[in-house]
Fold:
Amino acid sequence: MAGRISQKDIEEVRQRTNIADVINEYVPLRSAGGGELKGLCPFHDEKSPSFTVSPGKGFFHCFGCKEGGNVFDFVQKLDSLSFRETVEKLAAKLGLQLTYEDGGPSNEESNQRARILEANRAAADFYEKNYETDDAKPGRALLEARGFDLESCKKFSIGWAPKGWTSLTEHLKSLGFSDDELVAAALSTKGERGLYDKFRGRVIWPIRDQSNAVIGFGARKIFDDDTGPKYLNTSETPVYHKSQVLYGIDLAKREIAKAQQVVVVEGYTDVMACHLAGVTTAVATCGTAFGDEHIRILNRILSSDATNPAQVIFNFDPDEAGQKAAMRAFNDASKFNAQTFMAIGPDGLDPSDLRTKQGDQAVLDMIANKKPLLEFAISRSMSKFDLQSREGQVGAARAAATLVAQIDDAVMRGVYEKYVADATSLDRSSVGQLVAEHGKSIRRTAVSNLRTDAATPTAQAEDAPPPLNLNDPVIQFERNLLMVMIQLPEACSLELFARIAKANFSSPLHLALARVIYSERSSGSDENLLERCLAKLDEAQQSTLRELAMMPLQAADATARLRVGQGIINKGLERTIDYEKNALRGQRRQAEAVMDEAAIAEVDRKLMALTTELHALRSRR
Structure:
């Protein structure tokens, strides 16, 4: 077992990694001015961007959910990795070989993720080169028959796994990969006679993540003597988790962000057909149902703009499995930062077959003729009934009413009540009554759950301090002071810092932050001040200080920022002088009570000096 990664290497990874470049692979970022970047928070659902990234500071912070940290924190939280795995992943992207303390460098275990990614990349190259060999003719013939010529396949790096048992294994071992690494990557399987290739005699699709790294493969059966499933995917590995994988996301992510639209199809060839036809926002799941992890991935890319709402368009096969998938998507529709639709091809054709039979335009038309997913779900709920009989009409209306009652928008609810009434030949008022009955049931359930939740004791400590009132001008000014002290330490000398801090922080939280900042400045330079301070704070304190460090100082350039910062410090000094004068006046009253003339004179001298300092300070405004 290898030891800890050396601190020197950790710092090198941190310094060489641009946090904006890393986060932009997950979240589209836009300039927010002053060198800061903004995007939709990947850690919670939001409609307008409150997620801020500061490349200069090396930190991110969400002003909505308060999540934040450095580049290690981001990757660790979003990819569910340990700190060690996170450093190793970022180091692999930099091509940096890590060293380890208390156990030396690790070749097989500690660099496992990096080695798996390297093996996958080498395997993808091997498969792609083999696609043009004579051995691959059956695979090429299959794809060519579906309209994918050699040039089209190159766009998706399509490959071929030779039919032999150890072709890939021997190739990768010649490149220095060990047996354990190939098994860990799920590229080879260990049998009684040693290692053999997992994929043999199959067309191969490399599966990439948003950073374009090959994380796994999909393989399509070609030969009748292949006893495996029609499609075989990489099994779970340290880099491949099927519930988090969307095939084509590497090609589609930019277009999804640009068009604010994503098309979710069912298979590899469907993604290819869509992209080649001009629907460049298509992605597909890899051998698993579309679920919450996939929704979170897409929500990081999609934004919700009332003037230009994002769209998620599903395309599922018309068979029973496809219909069930569509209904699961309907049940999850509220989780999207987008409107949801269903696109169904003529005669139930999937995008690949549709393109083969009717051409690119037919695929474009299918997507353009999408229908709201709600409409699809309501129609499907009514399709099980005989609408020629009165009993069937009432049954269909009842089934549809359970869905219509869930619509919050009163106008939209009325539209679908009319839609159901027209489809079932019932009176609009009758449908409205059914919807109202189901609405009452939904509300009763909600109230019951609310009462249950209210009766459940919360984990919040009774002696927890009340939240800060951010509308309080005193609290606002304290926050402004801390913002300058952490962002622009050069605006306030250490001596002045100590003087101001004594008089300006009424909030225990703010005072604690000021003390940590002062302590860190006293013990060394201002370099990496924020990072050093965060290391000394608890989670709640970290969130507040990180937020203050990321808040923009409204100024055009560095000179103007410093001027703004000094203005806030001067205002704090004015308040400090007033505080000090009031304290001296109290001392003067005590001196007067005992008729101590020397003490009175000393206090008067100090009062005069403070008054002179205050006048001079105000004259420089």
Remarks:
- The two ends are 63 Å apart (CA to CA).
